């Protein structure tokens, strides 16, 4: 399966350069309209800022729509460097807004380019990644003696445990990539000696599935710092 990386959730970080604050907010977006809505929301949140510089990429690879704006900064010093870093990240379906609160010191052309680029690098370093893939949601009813092994089997097949109900047995609800379902079922039969089956209760053609990466802990935020 080709992994097309996207942001797992909205994430925010902040850097300071010569007393100016650069607050970068990144989020998953899947259309130009979604990108515009996200940008408008961040601009409303930081309506008193000097600049809210947007950049976005919709799609992946050669089939993308990309856009950026300097939002009043000198031409080419804000939007293009933000977009260049976003392009270089390997992400698609992503939008970022870099909010600047002017600190009283002019940075010059080179300083602005570095500051906007660094602000996007900072938030991308903290950003958890995900893939958008078809999935099955399954239910497995397991005895307690192999419950932990079932959980490990889900994780080994790149799945997520969504819910666990504890009664006479444990009912595990999990989400798996569609292409992993067959091997999960094979592993479950081997583990339970053919006594347990996984029942599919839902299928989703486009699920956002977080993936494990060695990123710094990300802070998903909808509130202003």
Query: How many structural domains in the coordinates?
Result: 2
* Continuous helix count: 5
**Rg from alpha-carbon coordinates:** 22 Å
End-to-end Cα distance, whole Å, is 38 Å
CATH fold name of the largest domain: Ribosomal Protein S5, domain 2
Number of strands: 10
The geometry reads as elongated
From N to C, what is the helix and strand string?
Answer: EEEHEEHEHEHEEHE
Q: Major beta sheet, specifics?
A: 5 strands, antiparallel
Oligomerization state of this entry?
A: single chain
Structural class of the secondary structure composition?
Answer: alpha+beta
Describe the 3D structure.
- This protein is of the alpha+beta class.
- The protein has two domains: 123 residues, 2-Layer Sandwich (Ribosomal Protein S5, domain 2), CATH 3.30.230; 79 residues, Alpha-Beta Plaits.
- It contains five helices and ten strands.
- Strands 1, 7, 8, 9 and 10 form a five-stranded antiparallel β-sheet that branches. The chain has a five-stranded antiparallel β-sheet with strand order 2-3-6-4-5, with helices on both faces.
- A hairpin with a 2-residue loop joins β2 and β3.
- The longest helix has 19 residues.
- The C terminus is likely disordered.
